[in-house]
Amino acid sequence: MKKSVISVVTALVLGTTWLSGAAQNKDIADESLGLSKVSVDADTGLVEKPYTYKGAAPGAGNKRIPRAYDNAPPMIPHDISELPIITQEENACTSCHMPEVAPSVGAVSIPKSHLTNLRKMEDLKGELYQGRWNCTQCHAPQAELDPAVMNKFKGAYRKKIGGEYKTNLIKTLRDGVMEDKTGSFDLNKDLLED
């Protein structure tokens, strides 16, 4: 008897909840979805302005772009729009940037971090790790634009070497995060002490 009463009360509560939810089921207006409070279709008339990439063709003496922050992937300082699409089987970047070729063509060598299986910290002896074949996943060309809002971002670096900020991802990974015996981690303190 007690179980029957509990079952009936539970069914009534669930049924009432379902009915009240169904009665309030209304469409959400486009205007209430975002911060701009206009229809999501309002941008359909926008036209992308034409742009060009900084730098000339690869190998044309393009100037390196400073990194945005410590261990940030470097920007691509040349136009890549005419290069074939990067696939795992075909990658035009490696024809100039592999360490054995780069010095002879004046290109920056692919770093040791890309020739290492970082999961196992295993040196691949000059072979590109297959998790790194898609260069533009991290590295991007810099477009020449007239932005509506200027970027005032300033990156944080550990130290300057030879007049410029340089990074070594493999060393950073090997160093790891030092244990802080006080129980707190102060990024600013750690950056200043390095």
Account of the protein in words:
The chain has 194 residues and is of the alpha+beta class. The chain has a domain at 47-145 and 157-176: Flavocytochrome C3, Chain A (Flavocytochrome C3, Chain A, domain 2, Orthogonal Bundle), CATH 1.10.1130.10. Helices cover 23% and strands 6% of the residues. The chain contains five helices and six strands; from the N terminus they run αβααβββββαα. It has helices at residues 2-23, 94-97, 102-105, 169-175, 187-193; strands at 52-53, 116-117, 122-123, 143-144, 160-161, 164-165. A two-stranded antiparallel ribbon has the order 1-4. It is elongated, with a radius of gyration of 27 Å.
Helix content: 10-25%
In CATH, the homologous superfamily of the domain at 47-145 and 157-176 goes by the name Flavocytochrome C3, Chain A
User: Cα distance, first to last residue?
Assistant: 74 Å
Which spans of ≥5 residues are poorly predicted at pLDDT below 50?
183-194
Q: What radius of gyration results from the CA coordinates?
A: 27 Å
Number of strands: 6
Q: Mind describing the biggest β-sheet?
A: 2 strands, antiparallel
Largest sheet, spatial ordering of strands: 1-4
* Contiguous helical run count: 5
Q: Structural class per helix/strand content? A: alpha+beta
Instruction: Identify the CATH class of the domain at 47-145 and 157-176.
Output: Mainly Alpha
Apparent shape: elongated
Give the SSE order as H and E letters: HEHHEEEEEHH
Mean pLDDT equals: 77
**CATH topology name of the domain at 47-145 and 157-176:** Flavocytochrome C3, Chain A, domain 2
CATH architecture of the domain at 47-145 and 157-176: Orthogonal Bundle
Strand content: 5-15%
